[in-house]
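Appendix B. Raw example, untouched.
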Amino acid sequence: MVLPSQILPQHQTDPLVTLPLPSPLPPSPLPALSTLLAHFDTLLADPSGSKNVVPPMMIATAMRQINRDAHALLNAGRVGAAESRAELDRRDTVLRGVEYERNRIREEIERCLEYVPAYTGAELPDRQAFLESASEEVKSGLPNVGSEEYDYALIIAQLEEELKEIEEREVDVAALTKDRDSLIKAKKEIKLKFDLTETWLTDYARSVNLGPP
């Protein structure tokens, strides 16, 4: 067997690259490599084979086996690296999504902290005056005085009372608007009848030669 004089770069279509990974993976060829190198050095030192040396065919077979095992482990490393890279990309995408949601939540928290309730600017009646004028049903619905919910419940009751008054005023405004529209319509009808009557009287006066009034 003629040993190669040089080792060329591995081609991408080499079967050692394209073959599927064995299961289980072979052990590391490093322990057997030192023994193979020793046999190879012995063969080079005594090419005639006068001493008790391993035949070249067995050395070549061992080299092929070590080469296959090394390529299998290399391909397994490449596959593992590709899978790890894909998993890293997936986790990076998830992390970016989490960071985006975290920033959104922080923005919403800041907006909530900066939020000023609209009722703080509303002109509400005095609490004592409201409680004196409130019905027993409203008073019984309030929590105990001094509790954490009392102030908010009282504000809600005041706002509901204000809303009720506004709705009553809107009903009154709607009724007044309806009456106004009726008066405007009646006024138009009266004016129309007046104009018709005036025209009729003018025509009648002319017909009897009395002239216009």
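End of appendix B.
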